[in-house]
Design goal:
Layout lengths: L8 E6 L2 E10 L3 E5 L10 E7 L9 E12 L2 E6 L4 H16 L6
Antiparallel strand pairs: 1-2, 1-4, 2-3, 3-6, 4-5, 5-6
Length: 106
């Protein structure tokens, strides 16, 4: 399941250069970015940095190894790599918290 969450500060690092982007969606296995910069090549190994608003019970900063898996316009998607069980659980809990903060109008 891919989720759309409240605005999250995010960037990615490729070859030592940090590039800002906008998070389009996220799951515990990967995410999609929108950027005005040149897209990283498919199969490129990058580091994704996600910074959520501070919270006393949940991790706010994530630095995740990832691989670029697809491009679509100015959007690219990555798959997280080598995410250990502890980090995966922390990300899952943070995403569950973010989703609980969304208001739905019927």
């Amino acid at each position: 399941i891919r989720l759309h969450v409240n605005p999250v500060m995010c960037s990615y690092e490729l070859n030592g250069t940090s590039v800002p982007g906008n998070l389009a969606d996220i799951s515990v296995s990967g995410c999609a970015f929108m950027t005005d910069a040149v897209l990283p090549p498919i199969e490129a190994a990058i580091t994704v940095t996600l910074t959520f608003s501070p919270h006393e019970s949940f991790c706010a900063d994530f630095h995740l190894a990832a691989k670029v898996v697809r491009h679509q316009g100015q959007l690219f998607a990555v798959q997280f790599h080598n995410l250990d069980q502890e980090d995966k659980q922390a990300l899952y809990k943070r995403l569950a918290h973010e989703i609980s903060q969304v208001s739905f109008i019927l």
